[in-house]
């Protein structure tokens, strides 16, 4: 059913202006193909029903364009006494850059479960790395730029503290970038090599999709590659603050339909999670989802420590009962 009478839709010029105002998006970082994809997506989502329940859930998460932008003071913005300040966002503000590489993927002291972030250039991967760590998007360890194609290595970030929970892997983006073709080919090679299925620590790949343009052809290719390799994957809808809540709900419905059309098998639950790394809306829900998933992996320090704690408690309880039995004799 058409919802034009219920939702005041924006045109492409309005959306482009918001990208430049809210994200400082550079003109050379947006191709005509991207602009056309945004225009077609805006037109297409009008034909999807607006689900009131989904809209309400998005509003509760702080997602969807608002008259007054969300206050993102929940992020860590500074250090106190040379120590990171704990926050209630994501992993609490604790992250360590372990290193970056273009091949021969490194091994680290803690063999933690790895969650990879993949997606189109300028879809918000590095911003989301910082947000998941609980660090202000522009002051975190992952470099963020308005320039498409800023991430030019595979970067590894240890997230969480005492014990660290998982390693986030920031992959180079695919698609349009301010870089020559040979460099773009090299980025695609890095992503393909890392997602070859040989990295034992990799437990999930999050495919980031820009909510303002929907599923791109490169996203479909990546999803097919992940399925062939048997890599668990989840779709994360980014830039959740640039569309109205009703439009964001319709964008989710459109992407869900696209996934059904291509027969994608997203084993992660829920299969699609909307977020905004810029404001932090929806980020804690995504972090808890990642954290819960990583706890099931053999390399999880959190699970190992928890298991050791349970063993100690069981032994103490056994000793207590034994002592109690001795006293009653």
UniProtKB/TrEMBL annotation:
Keyword set includes Transmembrane: no
Pfam families named among the record's database cross-references: MMR_HSR1
Classification via InterPro entries: G_ENGB_dom (IPR030393), GTP-bd (IPR006073), P-loop_NTPase (IPR027417)
Gene3D superfamilies the record matches: P-loop containing nucleotide triphosphate hydrolases
Membrane-spanning segments: none
Keywords, sorted A to Z: GTP-binding, Hydrolase, Magnesium, Metal-binding, Nucleotide-binding
Domain EngB-type G: 111-296
GTP-binding listed as a keyword: yes
PANTHER family (alphabetical): ENGB-TYPE G DOMAIN-CONTAINING PROTEIN, MSS1/TRME-RELATED GTP-BINDING PROTEIN
Protein name stated in the entry: P-loop containing nucleoside triphosphate hydrolase protein
